[in-house]
Automatic annotation (TrEMBL), chain A:
Transmembrane regions: 452-471, 483-506, 518-551, 571-591, 624-645
Cleaved signal peptide residues: none
Keyword Transcription assigned: no
Superkingdom of source: Eukaryota
Gene: GAA1
Protein name: Glycosylphosphatidylinositol anchor attachment 1
Automatic annotation (TrEMBL), chain C:
Pfam families: PIG-U
InterPro entries in the cross-refs: PIG-U
Family to which this protein belongs: Belongs to the PIGU family.
Name of this protein: LD37974p
Keyword Nucleus part of the UniProt annotation: no
Topological relation to the membrane, as annotated: Multi-pass membrane protein
Record-level GO cellular component terms: endoplasmic reticulum membrane; GPI-anchor transamidase complex; nuclear membrane
One record GO biological process: GPI anchor biosynthetic process
Subcellular location as annotated: Endoplasmic reticulum membrane
Transmembrane segments: 83-102, 167-189, 195-211, 218-239, 276-298, 304-322, 343-366, 378-399
Length: 674, 355, 426
């Protein structure tokens, strides 16, 4: 009850005052603690061994029944497909796939979809997926499992993964002869990478719903047949029937992950079949053993969080997550050229086929959706993970800085005019006497809530426009590529944000209040982003928290060099700059041989492309990254920039203002956006 | 001071020793005939309550367990009308079963325990703690079918077999509720008070099974459990073609034993209690005999698992007379004779009104 | 000043009107934080449709609005559905206007009272007294807090019937301050029959109107019961059946719908063993109604309006189906106690709590319902934290009031043995 009924009469607390004096030190200590905790997570004491918690899966209890004849079939199909690929250089051999599915006794259907590409005047693309349903023989079609393989045309720039189709078909042929399926199996072959999958999923779930077609960029059409609610999905990308290792890809849309049980299941079955498999599995030759455990773990953690933070799925499986279907991709990589091991080409794909069979039978055993194990985890090595309860403290410690600072800033907000003057550094010697007189009658000072609120709204409006403007019909009709269009709109709006603090100067006390509001919004934003996509939240926090801690609006206790450093840092922290720097670093890493100028130029175009892709991803797939950057980070940056500039009204102006009769917090600023 | 204490202890100790001796003497004094009489079978009919409390495909083994016992008691002569079979899930017809309509106890498919005619009395969601307790105590709801009632009496030997997932002091029913050892003990005590059994054989195959019989206080109960408190009961083996565990170890060996028992065999319950030594069971089989007055090694196994009643063939002539009313009414004078009364017929239709 | 008042009203209406036309409106109408089984617009539509079709709406389990409201709005719903948002906006603006008039009157009363007691006040307590400017400031703050609070705006654009409840409650407060007994009783009776919990507001009503006479108090209580009966009978004549009692009051009391909301009921009642349900039902309902009623009424007998504010706030926390619209209403009443604010130590903490928990609610709801990766516990955690924040706020307000009363008569700087004095609650 002590907390609820604070017995002291005065509202000033010594503890708060003491803390407020050392706010930076305390916050930096918290920051260091959070980052240190994050580093510690790579230590084996901080992470746990994986285990299967869903009893129903019972992985590995069945002996695989798939035999060499399935492998023979796969080889034969691959040869046929290679012949077909010569005729279909840039398209999918739909007829051949459909014929094969029909031949194996699947209920075969095709699915047509259209993409209306909005930029540069608008274009239309058409696509076609093929899927075959194997109905569960002794139960109603209420649940289904998807086995998907993307098809890449011969002319595609990506790695050839055409072996996945024969493998999938060979497994379908095997599966049809079995009577124990309790769920419908859907064998799906998509084209045009993630687009086809997205269209199929949309059609599967919302195909019969009336959509406003004028607004939809992707028109998924409808499906002729469905197979109940989808429980799980396995996406297969096989480069060749002779494989070296399997890379299990799990990151989905917006950093969502499949249930840890699903990953464990795949790992366990792959291990039983003797396939080298794992998360970000490296080829046999490149595997490094020199590194310490800690270093390996930490590297693994960072790569996982990095690929999660962009929110872009690492394979077609990621799109399933949006529909609450646990899915992952097993990407089997081609064995490097060697003659010695090529002794038994006739049985090369058998282990993989067996693994797929094992996974299918385990998934078949599922009684409800995956729910037992973790959805929030970080994989440190193939058999160790960090659960949400262990990694969240790192983020919480970082975010706590913002809230702590907000509280302390608030409790030291100037309450009277005199304090305000002191804070603003306007106290001059010859005015001290007058100030003393004033002190006898401390006139209570009203914080300019109204103006600050309007300023906040203005910044949020800029962020909102970033989302809306590039998609306005007026802009879309300009014959300009997506990248230049998006970039120019974004730069224009950032420029407005850049200029805003020069044009609009907040009334006295406004900056301090804005600072508090900024810290609160910043903290909330980080928490929410961290909940939805931990990786993004963490990286954003690690990057920006030091700056936020350093940021100060009071002039008295900060040196000018420090202020200028902060201003410079704020400029660099502009979301567009950050994107550019990241792209630059990646370009430099990829093409170290190029001269610096060329790298910078190339990075600039790549960054422009990245922003356009971000927008397209957000429109078509529902990726949040663009939205988050524009609607949250850009406004926050504008406020941050305002605070770092700390533009104050001239004191004389302020006095004039104060003499005016109105005491109510009237909006003083005239926001001139667009 | 210390010395006095010591002396006191020594005295008390001596007294205890003496009393023990006296007791020991008393037992040995019991007349031989009485002891023999106590060992004789006294039941007139047999009932079996067989319960599988867990559902879901991966619990195939529990269904196989209960069906194994069902098969044995039926083979040894208890009719279906006196077997109450509770099975929470249908494994034979599960879509995942590659051998539809069959449940095996063994990967080599030695015995199809599902057999030709299985009469399941409580199935699926009917298998609840409430129904089970109601069944035992005979407090079934109005309208319950006769096949769902345990119509045992003071002469019945009852076999209760439970299997499922258990813990210390409870057995889980269908992942949604559990019966505690106290509830079980209360139910059995109520059965005793209501004279619903003569002797009761309680058999349970689950993890920490021994915890379930700990709270029993009712007489004439013999209990056996597949594992002690703190131990897990383990499954016997996997059928890799189905992908599930087939049967639990304890029941597997129990079935192996029971398969060799014929209706008139001389096998005893005592032998049955040793059916699964730790070497093969891995868990320790727990037995509770303190409530059971007879020596298990003298009790034929068919006392519980069969329907063999003690019958005596007599060649003597026996007079069978039907009972008269006089046999029941002893005090004729005190009987109240009803006064004669007049019976008046009411007309069905008030026709006089219309006259 | 009057022109400013109208400007604010217009601006508030404009804000609501703008948001009504964005896709936000249907989204809010489906959010559990705003639309509960009691106040959701969809259910109102369903009820009116059933009523029009001659089917008893309370036979099913969907409609829990009182029959009078259903029949009163049925014409509007059926014939002019396009004007519904505007209708709700007008209702909300009426609420704001009533609150404004109420607070004007309240401040005036306070100032009069102060003039009488001024001699007894300690020195240096000017900032605790109602100043001359408060007559303008406080009503303005109240109206701003009502019109521009995101909670009430969202509640209005989601067309929840909380808008109607708020109007009635505002009317109740207005009559209470104005001293109009009969309308006050009637509106309270109506709200009581409609949503049960406002019955606690009989306490401030009795305190205001009985004027320390027990006989008057009993008479008013009897009158209240009679008016409740009248309202019930009026409801009865709409449908010619008493089913509505079970459909509204029974539904609230027995907590039949376990749909998640920002309250404390749903999680406990989903998790609890069924045979404890009756006990916890009574415990929770007692907690929401009479538990705090008696002590608070004794403590705050001189401040019936504060009592009413606190009761409305407690109602918003502990009722069976609370919505954020209820929270928005009592938050708008807080500026009335502006002179206590100096002693409210947790204002900022509570504000941060509200901000964090409300933003987390959205994220966790998404993770639970759509992504399927979180579960009910996460969401309940957020709502629990939100409720805790509200309780902090209420206790803070009460304690600040006690401190203010004390300091007003004893001065702000009391030194005992050279140290600052502390107030101990006994």
């Amino acid at each position: 009850m002590g907390l609820l009924s604070d017995p002291s009469i005065s509202t000033q607390s010594k503890l708060v005052d003491g803390l407020a004096r050392h706010v930076r030190k305390v916050c930096y200590a918290l920051y260091v603690a959070g980052v240190a905790w994050f580093f510690c997570l790579a230590l084996p004491e901080f992470n746990h061994g994986t285990y299967l918690s869903e009893n129903a899966l019972s992985p590995g209890l069945v002996y695989p029944e798939i035999r060499i004849d399935a492998n023979r079939l796969a080889i034969q199909l691959l040869e046929e497909l290679q012949r077909e690929r010569k005729d279909h250089l840039s398209t999918t051999p739909h007829a051949w796939i459909a014929a094969k599915m029909n031949e194996f006794g699947l209920e075969t259907h095709t699915h047509n979809y259209t993409l209306r590409y909005p930029f540069g005047g608008g274009k239309e693309y058409h696509g076609k997926n093929i899927y075959g349903i194997l109905r569960a023989p002794r139960i109603a079609s209420t649940e289904g499992i998807v086995f998907a393989a993307p098809y890449r045309a011969a002319s595609s720039v990506h790695t050839d993964i055409s072996a996945s189709v024969p493998l999938l078909l060979a497994f379908a042929d095997f599966a049809r002869r079995k009577n124990y399926w309790a769920k419908d199996l859907i064998f799906l072959i998509t084209e045009q990478e993630q687009l086809g999958m997205q269209a199929w999923l949309e059609a599967y779930h919302d195909g019969d719903r009336e959509l406003d077609l004028s607004k939809a960029y992707l028109r998924p059409g409808n499906l002729p047949a469905r197979a109940g609610s989808l429980q799980a999905a396995l996406n297969i990308e096989v480069q060749d029937l002779e494989i070296d290792h399997v890379d299990v890809r799990i990151e989905g849309l917006n950093g969502k992950l499949p249930n840890l049980d699903m990953f464990n299941l795949v790992q366990r079955i792959m291990a039983r079949e003797g396939i080298a498999s794992g998360y970000k599995q490296a080829p046999r030759k490149k595997r490094r053993h020199s590194q310490s455990h800690f270093e390996q773990n930490f590297r693994q953690m960072l790569t996982m969080l990095a690929s999660q933070s962009s929110g872009v799925p690492t394979g077609n499986h990621g799109l399933f997550h949006r529909y609450r279907i646990d899915a992952l991709t097993i990407a089997a990589n081609r064995r490097a050229t060697h003659a010695t091991l090529k002794g038994s080409p006739g049985s090369a794909a058998v282990p993989l086929l067996k693994a797929i069979e094992g996974i299918a039978r385990s998934l078949n055993n599922l009684l409800e959706r995956f729910h037992q194990s973790f959805f929030f985890y970080v994989i440190v090595s193939n058999d160790r993970y960090i659960s949400i309860g262990d990694y969240m403290p790192a983020l919480v410690a970082l975010v706590a800085c913002a809230f702590l600072k907000a509280y302390l800033t608030w409790s030291t907000l100037p309450a009277t005019n005199a304090e305000l003057e002191k804070a603003a550094g306007w106290l001059r010697e010859h005015e001290q006497e007058a100030e003393l007189e004033e002190n006898l009658e401390p006139d209570k000072f009203e914080l300019p809530y109204g103006s600050v609120l309007i300023y906040l709204t203005a910044t949020l409006l800029i962020g909102f426009l970033c989302n809306v403007l590039p998609l306005q019909q007026y802009f879309l009709e300009i014959p300009m590529g997506a990248a230049p269009l998006t970039t120019s709109v974004l730069s224009f709006l950032s420029l407005i944000g850049f200029v805003l603090p020069f044009v609009v100067v907040l009334p006295p006390g406004g900056l301090e209040l804005l600072h508090v509001a900024f810290l609160l919004i910043y903290g909330c934003a980080l928490i929410v982003i961290g909940l939805l996509n931990f990786a993004l939240g963490l990286f954003a926090a690690v990057l920006t928290v030091p700056l936020v801690i350093a940021l100060e609006t009071k002039e008295e206790n900060s040196r000018s060099t420090l202020r200028n450093t902060i201003r410079l840092a704020t400029l660099v922290m502009n979301p567009m700059m950050v994107v550019y720097v990241i792209v630059l670093a990646m370009t430099f890493y990829q093409f170290p041989e190029l001269p610096v100028q060329k790298i910078m130029l190339r990075a600039a175009t790549a960054a422009m492309d990245a922003s356009a892709y971000g927008l397209i991803d957000s429109v078509i797939y529902g990726n949040w990254l663009y939205f988050v950057i524009c609607t949250i980070f850009l406004p926050l940056w504008i406020i941050c920039w305002t605070l770092s500039l700390s533009k104050r009204r001239d004191y004389a102006d302020y006095l004039d203002f104060d003499e005016s009769p109105s005491t109510s917090p009237q909006p003083q600023s005239k926001v001139k956006t667009n | 001071m210390f010395n006095i204490m010591l002396v006191k202890f020594v005295v008390i100790f001596a007294l205890i020793l003496a009393s023990c001796r006296v007791e020991a003497d008393n037992t040995s004094v019991l007349p031989e005939g009485f002891v023999d009489a106590a060992q004789r079978s006294t039941h007139t009919n047999n009932w079996a309550v067989l319960v599988d409390a867990s559902r879901f495909w991966f619990n195939y083994r529990h269904v196989a367990n209960v069906l194994s016992i069902y098969r044995s008691v039926k083979r040894l002569g208890i009719p279906d009308s006196q077997i109450i079979l509770m099975i929470a899930d249908d494994m034979a017809c599960n879509a995942r079963n590659p051998r539809p309509g069959q449940v095996y106890n063994n990967a080599n498919q030695h015995i199809n325990v599902y057999g030709d005619d299985v009469e399941v009395d409580y199935r699926g969601y009917e298998v609840t703690v409430e129904n089970f307790v109601r069944l035992l105590t005979g407090r079934t709801q109005n309208g319950t079918a006769r096949s769902k009632k345990l119509l045992s009496d003071a002469g019945s030997n009852v076999l209760i077999y439970l299997t499922g997932h258990g813990g210390d002091g409870f057995l889980k029913f269908q992942d949604s509720e559990e019966i505690t050892s106290q509830e079980l003990a209360d139910g059995i005590q109520q059965m005793w008070e209501k004279k619903r059994y003569n002797e009761l054989f309680f058999m349970v195959d689950t993890c920490q099974a021994a915890s379930l019989y700990e709270k029993f206080t009712s007489p004439n109960v013999l209990a056996v459990a597949s594992s002690l408190v703190g131990e897990d009961s383990l499954s016997h083996h996997v059928d890799p073609s189905i992908g599930v565990y087939m049967i639990d170890r304890y029941t597997y060996y129990a079935l192996e034993f029971l398969e060799k028992v014929q209706p008139f065999s001389k096998r005893t319950i005592g032998e049955f209690l040793q059916v699964c030594p730790k070497r093969v069971c891995i868990s320790t089989v727990g037995v509770r005999k303190d409530l059971y007055p007879r020596d298990p090694h003298k009790v034929p196994i068919t006392d519980f698992f069969g329907a063999i009643r003690p019958t005596r063939v007599s060649t003597d002539r026996i007079n069978v007379t039907l009972a008269n009313e006089d046999d029941f009414i002893f005090d004729k004078d005190k009987m109240v004779t009803k006064k004669p009364f007049k019976i008046v017929m009411e007309s069905q239709f008030p026709s006089e009104l219309f006259k | 000043m009057d022109s400013k008042f109208f400007k604010l009203l217009l601006l508030g209406g404009a804000v609501r009107f703008y948001f009504c036309r964005t896709p936000l409106a249907p989204m809010i109408g489906n959010r559990v934080e705003f639309a509960t089984p009691l106040n959701s617009h969809k259910r109102m539509q369903e009820g009116i449709f059933l009523l029009q079709s001659g089917i008893d709406p309370y036979l099913g389990d969907l409609v829990h609005e009182s029959p009078l409201i259903l029949s009163a709005l049925s014409g509007l719903f059926q014939k002019y559905p396009q004007f519904l948002p505007i209708f709700y906006i007008i209702l909300d603006i009426c609420t704001a206007a009533l609150l404004y008039a109420m607070s004007l009157r309240f401040v005036k009363q306070k100032q009069d009272q102060q003039d009488k007691e001024r001699k007894e006040y300690a020195k240096d307590t000017e900032e605790l007294q109602f100043g001359p400017l408060d007559k303008l400031d406080i009503p303005e703050l109240v109206i701003v807090a009502y019109l521009f609070s995101p909670l009430t705006v969202m509640s209005c654009i989601g067309m929840t019937s909380t808008v109607i409840s708020n109007l009635f409650l505002a009317f109740f407060f207005y009559c209470l301050v104005k001293g109009m007994l009969i309308p006050c009783l009637l509106v309270l009776a109506f709200e009581t029959v409609r949503s049960f919990y406002p019955i606690v507001l009989i306490a401030p009503l009795l305190l205001v109107f009985s004027r320390n006479s027990v006989r008057r108090g009993v008479a008013i209580a009897a009158l209240f019961i009679v008016s409740c009966l009248i309202v019930a009978v009026a409801n009865y004549f709409v449908l010619n059946s008493w089913n509505f009692l079970d459909g509204t009051l029974g539904f609230i009391f027995y907590f039949r719908d376990l749909q998640p909301n920002i309250g404390l009921f749903w999680y406990f009642f989903t998790e609890m063993f069924e045979h404890f349900r009756t006990m916890f039902l009574i415990t929770f309902q007692l907690n929401a109604t009479v538990l705090y009623l008696v002590p608070l009424s004794i403590k705050l007998r001189k401040e019936p309006l504060l009592l009413a504010t606190v009761l409305v706030a407690l109602m918003a926390v502990f009722r069976a189906y609370p919505s954020l619209g209820d929270v928005g209403f009592y938050l708008a009443l807080l500026p009335l106690w502006k002179r206590c604010w100096k002693f409210m130590a947790h204002g900022f903490v509570v504000f941060t709590f509200f901000l964090v928990t409300l933003s987390m609610m959205g994220a966790l709801w998404h993770l639970w319902i759509y992504a399927g990766s979180a579960n009910a516990n996460f969401y309940f955690g957020a709502t629990l934290a939100f409720s805790t924040g509200q309780i902090f706020l209420i206790t803070d307000l009460l304690f600040a009031h006690v401190k203010r009363e004390f300091c007003l008569f004893n001065g702000q700087k009391i030194l005992i043995d050279g140290e600052e004095a502390r107030i101990v609650l006994k």
